[in-house]
Amino acid sequence: MNKWIMKKNNIIINNIEHFDPVHTFECGQCFRWERIDDSHWFGVVKGLALDLEWNGKDLILHNTTEDDFLKVWYSYFDLGRDYGDIKNRLSKNDPVMREAIGFGYGIRLLKQDFQETLISFLISQNNGIPRIKKIVESMAKSYGDPIECSRPGVHAFPSCERLSKLALEDFRVIRAGYRDKYIHRVTRQVCSGEVSLDTIMKGSIKEARLEMQKFFGVGQKVADCTLLFSGTRYDIFPVDRWVRRVMAELYLGYEADNEEINSFAMKKFGELAGFAQQYLFYYAREKKIGMY
DNA sequence: CCACAGGACGGCT
DNA sequence: AGCCGTCCTGTG
Q1: Is the CB of A228 under 7 A from strand B?
Q2: Protein CA at A234 to nucleotide C1' at B9, angstroms
Q3: What spatial distance separates the first Cα and last Cα of chain A, rounded to whole Å?
Q4: Which one of A86, A104, A220, A222 has the fewest beta carbons within 10 angstroms of its own beta carbon?
């Protein structure tokens, strides 16, 4: 549990542990944080804009309110979770995990908006991070509500309700390519109740993953990423090419298919699978594990 | 010009 | 049930 104080319009968390904005914002889970300089970041989350400062030990959330902190930022940054305990449990008898955690020690799983996460990871398929960010930004600029903040031209990520009213052609401007038809239909599937968000939130893991894949354009990978990065489920292990590489290289010794990797990871990491995935993914990508 | 990028669909066997 | 060509767009 982290202690925090309010000073003027800033929330300050002194000596925050298990956090580094580079690790957390650049581990591939989010697309709307911009690095200003070594200690300053700007992000747009759930209709709010935030100037974030991190000096190497203290986290400062500028120009916010206690209300927004308690309603949004506290859960978004997962401040109630004991990452020390998670790291200990994952590291136990696992030198690979210990190494990965030592490398990405400042990763936190952000609790992001479900709809935004769903659309963002729909866009992510067959795409690299710079382009994903560009498309998401374009989506906000074109159809999201403007936000008054320290910078001009900032927009919230548009709701599915708003997006569902658009025609397919309206998505051409965001340059999402063939994914525009997925976005078009998925936003309608969310609003119509064709896919049960209740099952996704409260069903068993198996039911939730199955229900997610009723969304047009959502396969297992996008389903799992959405569940994990929206903080809906943590006992989940998204498998993509980086995870496939790191598992082959550091655990299995051979190239296994997604299903085998998934069941191996679930058995090994259990309810902490989601955290394990992030440490491994970040480690693999930054170190380019298995690329040569 | 071609390969590939943090996949998924749809038509084929 | 599994395989595989194809899908927009940008970058190298």
Answers
A1: no
A2: 28
A3: 42
A4: A220
A178 touches strand C (CB under 7 A): yes
- Separation of A4 CA and B7 C1' (Å): 41
The pTM of this model reads 0.97
CATH topology of domain A5-80: TATA-Binding Protein (3.30.310)
Mean pLDDT of chain A: 96
Q: How many CB atoms lie within 10 A of CB A109?
A: 22
With a 7 Å cutoff on the CB, does A124 touch strand B?
yes
Cβ-contact A104, A283 below 8 angstroms: yes
Dihedral pair phi/psi, residue A15, rounded to 5°:
50, 45
Residue with tokens 């990965």: A100
How is domain A241-287 classified at the CATH fold level?
Answer: Endonuclease Iii, domain 2 (1.10.1670)
